[in-house]
């Protein structure tokens, strides 16, 4: 039997001082490389999110499948990521906000130098056979309370805009900040997507429009990464020793306070 199915959610590949990464979203390129190498050593095969969605819809066995995803569309996703994927023989899905092209990255400090990729960079990276381009909301609009028609408009407009830019269909969507209203799964299907992903310890399941992800942050190395990708991080994190460790880490300023006091609720 292969390892459990896994979809990992990254954001940017960069080494930043803590004050420029308030949401703890930038993973160093070397650490990302080590994650991919560790996953391959465990027997994982890498897939695009749309491929995982196809497998879910077909009722196929997902064991041993891992999808690497990146949210927001940072310029580093177009420059730093592709050569690493080529080196390691992996592939990844980028969930891009088409209304933020060329802007300073909204989730990092002004001194980080990070920005969202341009339309030209998006077209270039979309031509890479190791990259799938999926959609985030156009302007990172949150959907946790969206009624059906509003959810549909946000999802459909982002899919349509990206498809027009790329000249190709866009198959997959990522809910921002991992959250979505009850109307969103149906709205995603109505908008023309084939699958959608969320994240967090209690959201979603292996259903086409609610596929679960695990957010990876800069602190995920060694034992912490092992616990997280094996699916036991939350259980350990909420034991008395885990709560104590979490409090000590936050007191040292090494991790942000996050919604629901969970270890991987990020800005998505």
Helical proportion, percent range: 25-40%
Number of domains: 1
Briefly note the CATH topology name.
TIM Barrel
- Give the percentage of residues in beta strands: 5-15%
CATH superfamily: Glycoside hydrolase/deacetylase
Explain what this protein looks like in three dimensions:
The chain has 268 residues and is of the alpha/beta class. The chain has a single domain (6-261), classed as Glycoside hydrolase/deacetylase (TIM Barrel), CATH 3.20.20.370. The chain contains 10 helices and 10 strands. The strands form 3 sheets. Strands 1, 4, 5, 6, 7 and 10 form a 6-stranded parallel β-sheet that branches. Strand 6, helix 5 (119-126) and strand 7 form a beta-alpha-beta unit. Helix 6 (148-166) packs parallel to helix 7. The longest helix has 19 residues, at 148-166. The two termini are 32 Å apart. The relative contact order is 0.16. The model is unreliable at 257-266 (pLDDT under 50).
Keywords summarizing the entry:
six-stranded parallel sheet, two-stranded parallel ribbon, 268 residues, TIM Barrel, 10 helices, alpha/beta
